[in-house]
Amino acid sequence: MPQFQDHYKVLGLSRRDNPDAATIKSAYRQQALIWHPDKNKDPNVTEIIKTINTAHEVLSDPRKRHQYDIQFDFIEFSQRFDSSDFQARWNNNATKDTHKHYSSDYSWTQGQWQEMGGFPKGRARSSAFSNAH
């Protein structure tokens, strides 16, 4: 499976800043100057320039950028909930007592029931309230 390339990072931008077309163009030109084969002697410069050009092509076209952002959100979400990590979180949370506030030994006073509109209809009153008036 190919590695997902973050086009915003390639151009030195932040996706959260929602850069406009001028910012994207400026960032592209800056990266193109830095990685130009005449100025940079890195052996992988050709691949880096291709990556920069692809990032600019995608981010400068509003429709491609929108599709990319949707894909990026999905991949980011799926990486956050990797199956093994999700299973571990699920198992960890399953051991916690999530119903401790709703235990059966909790009892209300008659005043609390009256504040809530009285006893529920169709249920017998507890003997605990029969002596209190």
TrEMBL record:
GO biological process: cellular response to misfolded protein
Domain J, first and last residues per copy: 6-72
One Gene Ontology CC term in the entry: endoplasmic reticulum membrane
Family matches, as SMART domains: DnaJ
GO molecular function: Hsp70 protein binding
CDD domains in the cross-refs: DnaJ (cd06257)
Matches recorded under InterPro entries: DnaJ_domain, DnaJ_subfamily_B/C, J_dom_sf
Name of the protein in question: J domain-containing protein
Organism, scientific name: Cudoniella acicularis
Lineage: Eukaryota, Fungi, Dikarya, Ascomycota, Pezizomycotina
